[in-house]
Amino acid sequence: MEQLTKKQIKRRISISLLAILLIGLLAAAAVYGVVTARNLSISSDVRKTHKAIEDKVNGYILIPFSEPAGAEFSEEDFIEFNQNIDEIYECAIDLYKQTVDNYNGILIDAYNFETDGVDPTLCEQFGQDWVIINTNYLDFNPVYAPDGTIITREQLVTQENIFNVIVPISKKDKVAEIVDFRVAGYGEGGLDLGLTEDLVNVVFYDDSKSRIQAYNPLVAGNEGIIESPVLEIWNEQYFGMQTGNALARGYFINAETRGDELRSVIELCGLSNEINQTPTVSDTFEERISSINTFIFLYGSIGLVLLVGAVIVAIIIRKIVMLRAV
Length: 326
Known about the structure:
The protein is α+β, with helices and mostly antiparallel strands. Helices cover about 50% and strands about 10% of the residues. The strands form 2 sheets. The protein has a 7-stranded mixed sheet. Strand 4, helix 6 and strand 5 form a beta-alpha-beta unit. The longest helix has about 50 residues, at about 5-55. The relative contact order is 0.20.
């Protein structure tokens, strides 16, 4: 059996350690490469979505809520914000009521389908396949019934305690499960808002013909079209506490040319501190594209550095092996 010298042992250890480093660098570079490629795809899709909807959303603006943030806000500001959260929720409902008809407010809260470009969506992770919409959305974005007609607000039950849910026909066999889930969440044992099975009104839509557009730059893939979501219709009794979040995530109104008037409405509702900007829908898409491109540059640069490092390590390993052969 050949006896290895100390020099040979050190050389073998060096090669082994460098090989481990090489594998680690390549693996890390691959991860960054995959994330970069995914974000390149998302950036392209957001651009396509913006192009497809920009004419339709022309003149529409968002009224996003913002929690205290930044150096100008102290711990006391956060405490005060949280103490007033119930009042803020009531103000949000008031703002919704003040704008939904006067400014043709369109609501589609597609939070379950939003992506940050890295993590999977809540729908992908947990099967949360629903969005919250209002009846104005049905007027703005046609949703087709199985018979080919457009679903209108007249086909819904308008009683305050009725939970309207529009289910894709591809999920017709899951209706009982869909109803039970809502009852469990909003009825006894859940939020205790009085929902029972007989109060859930189910309407079906043809998801092979209906294009459920999110109008949201955080919803990527298929030009912003969400595939076969369950549509929950906003109802104050059941969604009142979620109104602030819903408005922040997916509520846009036709008020670009009525800024001063809208600001007065916001002040009247007591939300001047929570709503400090009103960007257009198009602005949010441009901002999202810019943010993704920054992310791509950062991750792409890190991936490139890792790849270069891997090449350098591979060259060093090769040299050590060649020296051994001499």
